[in-house]
Amino acid sequence: MCFSDGTENVNDEEFTDRAGVTHWITTKKSLYVSVTGEQFIVGCIRDQTELRRGQRELQHARDHLEDLVRARTAELAATNEALLQQIAENERTSDQLRQSQKMEAMGRLAGGIAHDFNNLLNVIIGYSSLSEAQALPGSPLHEHAAQVRTAAERAASLTHQLLAFSRKQMLKPELLDLNSVLASMGKMLRAFIREDIELEIMSGANSTCIKADRGQIEQVVMNLVANARDAMPHGGKLTLRTGSAHLTSQMDGEDCVEDREYVALQVSDTGHGMDATTQAQIFEPFFTTKTEGKGTGLGLATVYGIVKQSGGHVRVSSQTGQGTVVTVYLPQAAERAPVSRPTLVTKPRQGSETILLVEDQESLRTLLHRVLESSGYKVLTAGTGAEALRTADRYDRHIDLLVTDVVMPGMRGWQLARKLLCKRPEIKILYMSGYSDIDLVAEGRFQSGAALLEKPFRPEALLNKVRDALDMPQIPVAPSKRRRTRQPRAASM
User: Fold this and answer.
1) Which of 222, 234, 369, 359 is CA-nearest to residue 298?
2) Do 180 and 321 belong to one domain?
3) Tell me, what CATH number does 394's domain have?
4) pLDDT tens for residues 315-352?
5) DSSP 3-state assignment of 252?
6) Domain count of the chain?
C-alpha cells in the first residue's frame, strides 16, 4: 500500500474470527508527517458487520417482495382473464336467455293462433270432404270441393309446423328404430330430391331405438333433407347417418343437456354452407335465406321445436362454401322397438252406439254431429265439460263413447274424462286435439285405453277412429282408494 502521494486509503475488509463468525470492517489509513519530519501511518477501523447483515436482510426482503409482486401480478392477470371469460359467458347466457324468451313468446303466439286455426280448418276440410263425396266424380262441384279440401290441408300442414315450433303438439310417442324409419323413407326421399344429388343412408350398428312420435320424426327428416337439397342448387351429395352418442352437461354450446346416451341422426350436405350470422338465426321462425315465395322460414324452427319437445338437442356445423352438418340427438330408449307391420286402409265403418260429443267450437261441433249421426250413431252434444256432465246425468241410458276436445275453457278434456269415468266406468274415451300445452302421456293424464285424433282431420278419419275406440276391449277402471277415518273409541269408565 503506497502512502507517498498523501491520499487517504479506504478499504472494506472481511475476516472470520476464531468462533467462525464473519465480520466486515472498513479501514481508513493515511500518512502523517510530524514537525520533525517523522512519518506515521494513522488509521481508524469501523465495524460494518451489523450494517452488512442489515443490508443483506434488506436485499433478501426486497427479492422476496419482488417475488410476491410477480406472483400476485400473475394471479391478478389470471383472475382478470377468468373475469373476462365469465363476462363473455354471462353475455352468451344473456343472449341465450333473450333468444329463449323471444322463441317462447313466438311459440305462445303461434300455439294460440294454430289452435283456433285448426278448428276452422277442420270445418273447411270436413264440409269440403262431404261435398266431394256427394258430388258426381268429374263434375265441377266435385273438383271444386277437392280443390278447397287440398288447400285447407296445405294450410293444416303449415299449422302443424307452427305447433311443432311452439312445442304444443299432442305427441303420440312409441318405440321406434331410427334405422327402420329411415329405411322406410328411403324411396320417398330419393323421389323428393333432384337427380343431380347423390343420397346415401348409413345406418349405425349400435342401438338406434328411441321413444318418439313417428310422424314428427319423419317431419324432422323431411325438413332437414329439404334444407340440404335447397343448399345444393347445382347438385352434390346428401348423407344421412345414424349412430349413438353420449352427451354430458359440460359439453360446450348447449345448455341443459342431460347426461345420458342419445341416438344421433346426422344430415350432411356439400352445399354452399352458412356464415356465423346466418347460423345464429336459422332456428328463428320465419327466418329464411330463400327468395320471397320460395320458403316459409319454418323448416328448421319446426325441427328445433319437435326435437326439444322430444327431449333432444340440435347442433349445426357449417362454413361458407364447405357444406353443412346438422346433428339431431334424441334420448336412447332402453327397450327395443317392435317390428313394424303395414296397416290396411279401410272404408269408414258405421255403428249404432251412443256417443257423447264435446267440442267448444260450435261450427266444428255441428259438423262432427252431422258426420257421426249420418253413420248411424246416437249423438249427444255439449259445448263445455260442465255441460257434458249435466247431459250425461240427464241421460238414463248407456253411453258408449266420449269424444272430447282436449283444450276447452273451464275444464280440460282429460278432467272431464276422469269425472265421467267415476260415474260411468264402462265409457270409452276418444280425445281430439289441435294442440295441447300438456303432454297427457308424460303427465299420466291420458287414461289407459284412450285414443287420440289429431286435428284437423277428414270425416272418414273420425269415423274410423270412433269405430276403433268402440271396438277396443274394455279396460277395467281400478277403484279409487279412499282413506278410512278412524273413529275415536269411547272412553272407558
Assistant:
1) 222
2) yes
3) 3.40.50.2300
4) 999 999 899 999 999 999 887 766 555 444 456 678 89
5) coil
6) 4
